[in-house]
């Protein structure tokens, strides 16, 4: 249950060695020997229902209780959460009733701190996950305060394995979090940087071979170019054309697979009975923020449009501890009950995945989502995500929503960015899923089964494209990712230099992700199988090659413009013609896929701008060279993208259903 953030006062007349107070009318002193535990079902049967206690005390009206019970029957939620979410009782009233129900003492760890050694013995992260606070040794017992008393008997065996006999006390969730953070925030921050298994992470010296390889390859090419410049250029051109054919072929195949699937969709498939969801689960959504001005009002407005029951919605605004800009903006607004701030302590690096890892331990939901600061999701998005998880088996670990931009009319760069995203999320990525390939995820509108995410160690805190890396790790561990036709609108990065910085981070992350997973190619092949292994090579190595060799490929425009290709004298005529045809066909594929992706009414005005992609993609070559430099010098540097620069009125309304 979501317990209050504020703790109750501790009257000196009822303290246990000055350490706590007995709450409720029949509370048990903390030093008294605990009664022999009953079986869980029997124990629950002996306890007075929390609703009845609140009714008897006059804190709750009978009509409100009936309404809350009806809501609880359809939700994976405790009654207290429902009562608090709908302001039917106050935090203090509910907490006093809980103390009476469980005949337990209330701990105020702010006034009387716990023994940090006990927290270390059980593990700070484990304490957060289970909602327990090992507090003090007293009279041969270890007093363990909990914010989830109904789960205490299930947790007792694990607690007693560490501490011996334990006694139950109560603590609010907010007070429990505050106490652990006060004593062990540094340990949690270190854990956030190293949750992923070392052999699956890029931290430490794991990228040494990539750096050495880049330096060795660069030196070899430079020496070879001095000895045989024409041969080197021809070889690079051949490799560039080879990867161009592969990447464009995969793009076209994926797009056609998506279009065929759309045509085959029958009305009977859409109207077939769908399994009912007995009880909706809680959903936690992580929103990492950094240097965001005046963000609170927009976040509340956009996420407040989500139609998912607010008592089941848990939005965590994840902010760095020294980010006074964002913290000040959030402090100036009163956040709704379903939205809270998680402050991330300073560490050895500052990245989005590190912040996500840190906040993961504080989530309440069984489904974990990720949004960006400027996101405007469709109102029914969480309902559709929950249904997709419900309809699929446990192998479905991740649902990726589709991204779109709400400011395509800002300038040419925004229009091209919107066309690129429409092609990727509407045609290519769904096609890759249908082809059975491992999917490189996007950084937002991602939803995970919490158990799977924790099993994999969350995100690699050192990888600047933690999303793409996580998608590959999910596939390697045998889990499945699916695309869901639900859209989140966000702000296109449409200024040239910030666009290059953002794209260079993505390219650098692709290089790092490729290096991490190719450290042991044989194991990667065994994990993925031949088909997905080859797809991985095309998606990552092929894409990186295209960005870096783009200027060579663009030399074929000289054939169309008249001067002729500079290597025409050194290449066989058939080779030159074949390369020219391949280059022209790749341009046709880009145009065709772009046009096919713009089938929504709001996108149709962009069709005239699709040919402009010819001049848009070459900008990525500049980003590629910046990324190559940073792989050598600053592989973990996170080049932050500014938000809110083009936050137009279009962003104030959720996108229409498509």
Helix and strand arrangement:
Blueprint: E1 20-22, H1 40-46, H2 50-57, H3 62-72, H4 79-85, H5 91-102, E2 105-107, H6 116-122, H7 124-130, E3 132-138, E4 141-146, H8 152-163, E5 166-170, H9 173-193, H10 208-227, H11 229-264, H12 267-271, E6 283-289, H13 296-304, E7 313-320, H14 324-331, E8 339-344, H15 352-360, E9 367-370, E10 376-377, H16 381-391, E11 396-405, H17 412-434, E12 446-449, H18 450-455, H19 466-476, E13 480-490, H20 496-517, H21 521-548, H22 550-554, H23 557-561, H24 573-597, H25 613-616, H26 619-633
Parallel strand pairs: 2-5, 4-5, 6-7, 6-9, 7-8, 11-13
Antiparallel strand pairs: 1-2, 3-4, 9-12, 10-13, 11-12
Helix pairs in contact: 2-5, 7-9, 9-15, 10-11, 11-17, 11-21, 11-24, 17-24, 19-20, 20-21, 20-26, 21-26
